[in-house]
Specification:
Low-confidence stretches of chain A: 1-17, 295-302, 332-338
CATH class of the largest domain in chain B: Alpha Beta
Strand content of chain A: under 5%
InterPro entries (chain A): MetI-like (IPR000515), MetI-like_sf (IPR035906)
Family (chain A): Belongs to the binding-protein-dependent transport system permease family. CysTW subfamily.
Order of helices and strands of chain B: EEEHEEEHHHEHEHEEHHEEEEEEEEEE
CATH topology of the largest domain in chain B: Rossmann fold
Shape of chain B: elongated
CATH superfamily of one domain in chain A: MetI-like
Strand order of the largest sheet of chain B: 6-7-8-3-9-10
Largest sheet of chain A: none
Bound molecules: adenosine-5'-triphosphate, magnesium ion
Pfam families (chain A): BPD_transp_1
Largest sheet of chain B: 6 strands, mixed
Number of strands of chain B: 20
CATH architecture of the largest domain in chain B: 3-Layer(aba) Sandwich
Low-confidence stretches of chain B: 369-376
Distance between the termini of chain B: 48 Å
Radius of gyration of chain A: 26 Å
Oligomer: heterodimer
Helix content of chain B: 10-25%
Membrane topology (chain A): Multi-pass membrane protein
Distance between the termini of chain A: 43 Å
Radius of gyration of chain B: 25 Å
Structural class of chain B: alpha+beta
Subcellular location (chain A): Cell membrane
Number of helices of chain B: 8
Chain lengths: 595, 376
Amino acid sequence: MNGQSLTMTDTAGAKRHSPPPAWRKPVLMGAPLVLLLVAFLVFPVGQLLALSVYNGQGFTLAPYAQLFASSLYATVLWITLKISLATTLVAVVAAYPIAYLISVAKGPAKSRLIFWVLLSFWTSFLVRAFAWVVILGRNGVINSTLMSLGIIDRPLDLLYGFGAVLVGMVHAMLPLAVMTMLAVMENIDRTLPRAASTLGARPGTAFWTVYFPLSLPGVAASAIMVFVSAIGFFIVPALLGGRKETMITQLIIDQVQQTLNWGLAGAISVLLLTVVLIVFVLYDRVFGFASLTGESAVVRNRDTAMRRLGGRVLAALGSASDALIGIVPRRHPIAGRAERPLALTAFVWFLLVLISLPAFLMIPLSFGKGGLAWPPSGFTLQWYEQLLQSPIWMQALWRSIVVAFGTGLLAMAIGVPAAFLMVRGQMRGKGAMLAFILSPIVVPRMIIAVGMFYVFAQMGLVGTILGLVIGHTVVAVPYVVMTMMAVLRNYDTRLDMAAQSLGARPLAALRHVTFPILGAGMLSSFLFAFATSFDELTISLFSSGGLSATLPKQFWDEVTLQVSPVIAAVSTGLLLFVAALIWVADRMRRRSLAS
Amino acid sequence: MSSSSLSVQGLAKRYGDFVALAPTDLVVADGEFLTLLGPSGSGKTTLLSLLAGLVPPDEGSVRIGSQDVTYAPPYERDIGVVFQNYALFPHMTIEENIAFPLKMRKVSAADAKRRAREALEMVHLPHIAGRYPRELSGGQQQRVALARCMVYKPSIILMDEPLGALDKKLREHMQLEIKRLHREMGTTIVYVTHDQEEAMTMSDRICLMNAGRIEQLGTPADLYFRPRTLFVADFLGESNILPADLRTRVGDEVEVGVGSSGVSGRALANGHDLPPGSSVRVMVRPQNLAVARHGASAMGVPAVGVQGRVSEVMVTGSLTKVYMEPLDRNLPPLVAAFPTRNEADAVRIDDVLTLSWSGRDAVVIADTAAPAAGTA
Ligand SMILES: Nc1ncnc2c1ncn2[C@@H]1O[C@H](COP(=O)(O)OP(=O)(O)OP(=O)(O)O)[C@@H](O)[C@H]1O
Ligand SMILES: [Mg+2]
């Protein structure tokens, strides 16, 4: 044994005398994602922005001259900001109690709450926006109900106004606001408010001076996510807004689809991007990007005067709510109960019903004979028959499924290693890397979509499945990375080490230990990417080409050109599909927990 | 050189600016039982992880036998590791956990099952094969972790506080099991523990660590009776450490004057070669202090020595411990221990006693606080 191991030794020893280059692994893990983003985000967006100053022959500022010549663009920008800010404000305020209740709830109550938020979250933006058209329309739910009650005798103009846009936007963004906020709230140490109350703080004071400040990074993260999504959104203003509620994204669509004025489209994009960047720089100064991924929920304490003022306001709020609580006769003498007062639960359920209801209205309409007018009358399956017999719809469905699967797989293949790198790797510039990975969320979707269209057109990728998969992967991969990072942070890396010390090679350790334990988290990342692609409209709007529409694109064409009850049938189908998806994901999660 | 000896040279690990392990040399002989002992955060787990290849070193090399494995991955080292936090796989049953290393070595399923059962019997847990780790108590998990490591009979086993969560009785049983494994299979074991008694009874050698470096390496008796530094003297067991002046050298002993009154006494020089007049420390273990009532003589040693007033008497079963405040204010409180005697001649609080010791039982420790010899 000795002689043999001695000879073996020296060759092996010599072979391995120097350490493996430390840069190789991080590069292999991070490069695919970086390449993808450089090729299909940085390059296209750069091209689009360049088009605003380069007209094919040389440098020009003509698009900017056009931009500032009329007050149209400034007005639209102002309206866009107004709608986005109002949406952010309302969505965040409404999301707070929902997220709070979820974070303090336990067991089945918590699962139920999460189910309804997820259902709204994953129900197509199109379905939800279209539902408001049906609710607010002249023959819609509200008008016909009020008329039949005799409260009004002529239909009100509810649709096509600031109110309608705001309602639709808030509805679209609320689930996102809840989910982002929840990520931070779940990490707040539940014993802290209790500790405060043992130290003599009344429930209101404990909430406002301890819990609320700790939850602020979540509020901030959720506000910026909502704001950035809202500013790049076009579905709701296009369907629910009138002339006065045009948003800047719609102008870009017009330039690209109707006037083919790429220069102006580029200039508008520069304008939009500048606004978003300013907002982000402000955000980074106050909260730091890390809080977006729940990395560290610590507010940087710079401005002490502001902090003191804030502290006083919160203390005042605390004593005010204590006074309010004091008026109401106390039903539960146990302090722990105060965390989940009945009124809050009722209010949150009211909100959840409100955000779920619109999509559910599509179900009775899809079986009604009377088209999309409320109330539905009679019973028929004709819309479903039409749908199933329509090759256009069926091909769109099939294409969407293929693209979503492709996107899920590609985003996982690229995003999972990157997430490992971000959580486990020790390297400099992690913060910059993270910001880069998150950039597809930061850059308004419309700009990405238009830039990508321009580049895809040159590469012959317009109208191809591959083009759509690449495009959707770019916007889905940040979500995969973020979900996987959260999952990996809770994973004990010593298990991998244990596996390796027991003789498992890295791949075997991945297969037998890492992946089985991370399974549920990986599945939800995959579903996230799948759902993102399945509901993606902005990129598909341009890049799917005229004849190879995805489901959302087909939906969009249908609602903007002709409104037929088939839409209600499609919506019902989508709703059930999403509900089934969430149910399956939850079952898988439970199975993996039980095993 | 045999294939299951371990040697490290200049091995170091830093986390940022923090030195978790300063450049360290260490040789563990084939079949040796070496214990790493030291306060929390002293780098024991770090050293173990470097040996196992779980973290890459910043400098230095690791050899197993004569093979350089510094950068070899853990699965190529044939080293078993029992982790401080058990590291059982949460998604596998206990039996699957234990069979895992066998599966990785392509042992047939039936064989793996049989050997896993045997390993479970060895740790007295045959009835829990089908359970999951979270359904076990901490102590049971620890025993499973041991079984999982022993089942594939690696030639080197690294154990990070493998018995920390067990009660006294189980711990003693497992200590015997580990010793038996060590003896029968000739396994080389590097063992981490916080329990000094465990370290003393089980180890061939103890490596006492402090702040990322080896403070002293030697047999249990070396460390216990011949500590090189104050830290070692203080860390292992109870000790009396007396400031003293070195007077003359007598063979391998020296004569010293203790405290400000300069009571004379003797101590082993322990390799220190210091000039007369150096200030040093003398360490005596409590059980090596002879106690006599003032003026009397005890054990044939004349009762000249340090005098102290009894402040506390504690009977701990077979031993009686007497705590004293020396009359010489420059000396620290002292403790002596002797077999518990009949009540008739028991020591009482406020008695004044004379303490003396044999030169063979005391040891000189260089006083690090004093200026180096020659400059004084
Ligand atoms: N991954 C790491 N990053 C930064 N510091 C670390 C890391 N791992 C260990 N350390 C630090 O290195 C020092 C030594 O840690 P180590 O785990 O080796 O201590 P230990 O002797 O095993 O302690 P204990 O008895 O508590 O287990 C500690 O101060 C620890 O904080
Ligand atoms: Mg340790």
